[in-house]
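Morning. Coffee machine broken again, so started the prediction first thing and wrote up yesterday's gels while waiting. Chain of 122 residues, entered below exactly as on the submission form.
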Amino acid sequence: VQLQASGGGVVQAGGSLRLSCTASGSGFTINVMGWYRQAPGKQREEVAIIGYGGRPDYVDSVKGRFTISRDVAKKTVYLQMNSLKPEDTAVYYCAGRRSSAISKDASTYNYWGQGTQVTVSS
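Came back before lunch.
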């Protein structure tokens, strides 16, 4: 199973970016998908998580600005990021989990993408 993330880039504060992550391979089921990020010198943190049905979960710092969604048929998860701030600068990783239980613990995710850099300039 591979997760391929794309959509990162450089944007000015207040701008928007849309990240995408597509799963490929066979013989697997990913029930929960999420986005994590890691800034230099900081620990990896959850940004947004989505399962089948239910309410997506967001870290407080992005609520109202970021929206996570998924296209099950395309095996793709998206992260729409609006009103970006310099503190959103980080490498963003997509992750997938076989279990259907929502979890914020990164160690419980089975699959990880390669990361895409998001840089927000002030």
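The chain has a mean pLDDT of 94. Going to sketch it on the whiteboard this afternoon.
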